[in-house]
Amino acid sequence: MPELAQRCSEIQPFYAVEVFKQGAALIAQGHDIISLGIGEPDFTAPAQVVETLNRASSAGLSGYTPPLGLAPLREAIAHYYGEEFGARVKPERVIVTSGASGALLLACTALIDPGAEILMPDPSYPANQNFIRCAGGRPKLIPCGPEQQFQLTANDIETHWGPDTRGVVIASPSNPTGTRILQSELKKLIEAVNARGGFVIMDEIYLGLYYDEKPESALTLDDNLIIINSFSKYFHMTGWRLGWMTVPETMITAVDKLAASLTICAPSLAQHAALTCFEPEVMRIYENRRLSFKQRRDYLVPELEKLGLTVPVKPDGAFYVYADVSRHSNDSEAFSQQMLAQAHVAAVPGRDFGPAHAQKMLRFSYTLGLNRLEEAVGRMAQFLR
């Protein structure tokens, strides 16, 4: 048998997927499972986007595209970021990728040398650590509490930056907390990283899913950030595997070379179809759906509080609630397993997102309609009684 690379033992499992598998097994046995686990919208691509895909397929537009993506799509993304999030970006700096995962693969490969230390908040999306490890880097999780929105601060950079530290990976809004970094705090953080000659990889996958004041991209603060985004969440195209990254001009050539070898190109039919996402009629659909997510958040957060599942920070983006179960259990994983088995409601235990809050936190995803959320709350109430 071939001997596996050392990195395979360092890659952490994704427990949200394990919860999904357990729920699927119960469904196969005939049980009705309400999944508040996987972060996948119940909405799918609008009909207009699907129609464009079908036309592109019929026209035979399924061949390779340039490694950096179709020029019209790169232009559309650049225009979208300028109009919606105040960031004026040249289309040449926009790189279309195979989902946000493809963007993270390219960014980490381009920036991280073996042994480099990368700072991340705890809690954070677990797969990001694995991209760092696969590039030979070492993620360093910094415990972040509710008093700082569960996000890194400039003080964290000053305290934890070491001789091997090369950069940070952050997200706003965040998975699992749904919290944003305030622009004033983000500015200080970026300045602290820049003062040390480091890089910032900024995940803005959920930037379009905001529920209070309209956000601006981090690019409005610094033009040299590496921005990651995707068509999966706001545009509801999870299985289409299409995303993008925005990089400084000095990185374009290197990323082009890497993309040509590692991915060749993002899915071509998905790229053609994605152009339709930015048409005014379709954007109105996405706006209505955003308001539906806000309605769900405004229902679920107070209902969880009534159940004694404390929400330390109200989420202001994405579609997640990070809730404290310590009034009911000191083991969130056992609590999650019991709730799935007895109430048939799935949620993700905190250990998926880092050790700092693992024992007491659960992530609830409100990607289902209000009727199912109401049923889930009723089941949880009965379970807790």
Automatic annotation (TrEMBL):
<dbReference type="GO" id="GO:0008483">
    <property type="term" value="F:transaminase activity"/>
</dbReference>
<keyword id="KW-0808">Transferase</keyword>
<dbReference type="InterPro" id="IPR004839">
    <property type="entry name" value="Aminotransferase_I/II_large"/>
</dbReference>
<dbReference type="Pfam" id="PF00155">
    <property type="entry name" value="Aminotran_1_2"/>
</dbReference>
<protein>
    <submittedName>
        <fullName>Aminotransferase</fullName>
    </submittedName>
</protein>
<dbReference type="InterPro" id="IPR015421">
    <property type="entry name" value="PyrdxlP-dep_Trfase_major"/>
</dbReference>
<keyword id="KW-0032">Aminotransferase</keyword>
<keyword id="KW-0663">Pyridoxal phosphate</keyword>
<comment type="similarity">
    <text>Belongs to the class-I pyridoxal-phosphate-dependent aminotransferase family.</text>
</comment>
<feature type="domain" description="Aminotransferase class I/classII large">
    <location>
        <begin position="32"/>
        <end position="379"/>
    </location>
</feature>
<dbReference type="InterPro" id="IPR015424">
    <property type="entry name" value="PyrdxlP-dep_Trfase"/>
</dbReference>
<dbReference type="InterPro" id="IPR050596">
    <property type="entry name" value="AspAT/PAT-like"/>
</dbReference>
